[in-house]
Amino acid sequence: MSEYLLEVNNLTKRFPIHGGILGREVAAVSAVNNVSFKIKKGETLGIVGESGCGKTTLGRTLLRLIEPTSGQVIFDGTDVTKLDDKGLKNMRRRMQIIFQDPFASLNPRMTVGRILSEPMNVHGLYMGKEERVKRLHQLLGYVQLPIDTLNKYPHEFSGGQRQRVCIARALAVEPDFIVCDEPVSALDVSVQAQVVNLLMDLQVELGLTFLFIAHDLKVVEYISSKVGVMYLGNMIEHATAEEIYGDMKHPYTKALFSAIPEPDPKKRSKRILLEGDIPSPMDPPPGCHFSPRCWKATDQCRSSYPAVEEKSDTHFFRCHNPI
């Protein structure tokens, strides 16, 4: 039995672009490109990177909400990419997702009670009336919402309350693994802290494992056991949170993390401003995809894509000329 709950091996997702009279494939966007990582039970892997780097596509491809082009997603010893419809339905009871927009992901015509009951109906859980009501009350207790929430509609709640409903819905089928796709980015800062602390408390209480996608680097540092940095569909650095935030190796990671606000003027470090735009994923540059914007790039960087460099058992990065 593997010590890892989730193992991702060379996961790739290409979106074909069709054109011409016959609608043939004329190009493709590599949204996720040969990404590999592992997560132990009870860990949180934070995924960071600029908008459009493939974070959300990665999270949805793990659950096969988007079908992968190639690679493996091994969850508790089972390759999710090989499952048929019945096997995938059973697996999705153990793998859930919390979406970024809590309003768009809730049906406005359904009460919270129906919203929370729907996944249980799909998987045939808590079918008796008494045990269903008990389970609904338990879910509301997990996310600290009052019982009368069950009879209300999504538009009657604030953004933070709606996101709590989304968390309760993800918990309804007793999952082991949850993809948190920027679950706090649409919320006020004070509410963000409440939701993040709630997720961490639930992780301890229920033994959950998270893939936490976010833009806020401080939130990722706070909640994550390990951190993966993505750029243009590639995982370019992966390590424990302590290593990433204390001893980053890739120049892009250095530039990205230099944008973290520092409230103490005496501790402020120089902001690294990258020149140029992010290359098109339809036509990435040769060699290292970051080389056109990298101040440390050499001819080798521009001609060949770097292999994985191992700094320690828990830290790898892709860079010919690391910091």
Q: Would you identify the regions where 5 or more consecutive residues have pLDDT less than 50?
A: none
Q: Per the principal axes of the C-alpha atoms, what is the gross shape?
A: globular
Number of strands: 12
Instruction: Say what oligomer this is.
Output: single chain
Radius of gyration: 21 Å
Largest sheet: 8 strands, mixed
Task: Supply the number of helical segments.
Answer: 10
Strand order of the largest sheet: 6-7-8-3-9-10-12-11
Distance between the termini: 37 Å
Query: Mean pLDDT across all residues, rounded?
Result: 92
| Binned strand content | 15-25%
Classification by helices and strands: alpha/beta
Helix content: 25-40%
The SSE order reads EEEHEEHEHHHEHEHEEHHHEE
